[in-house]
Amino acid sequence: MIKNLSAPFLFFLLFCILISSCEKDDICLVETPSSPRLVVRLYDKDNRTTFKAANNIIIQGVGQEEPLMTLNTDSLTIPLNTQEAFTQYAFILPSSTASLTVADTLQFNYRRYDRYLNRSCGYRANFILEQNAISFPTNTPVWLESFEILIDTVSNEQQSHLAIYH
Prior knowledge:
The protein is mainly beta.
């Protein structure tokens, strides 16, 4: 009779020991923030305090087949490449006629620094925008007039980092 009671008790004791040995750092929670994306706000070039949406803007990574996003907004969140010191995107403004489609290729330049989160989540990449945060690798801009760095450190997605005037 004692043998019948000792097996479940030993199993329960072993289970409690295993559960209590887990530490908070052993589990990476979903709420843990990942590497932040660059937040870009689009402004009117004539009135630099007014937001101006880009109608049906298509953002596509250079060398990518599929567009990253298609938006009709004045606020964009763009992922940055953690393996390079720059990321290139084509900003495409489609038109009803294919010959009038306008595209600018932008290169976002930055330095990456990693911040240790914990043992289970590892490191999180953060970025510091360079003075020449945007360059145009293929040609002069067509529809983008200028840009301004609002916050040079990309460590969260709660604030706008860049202003682009068009």
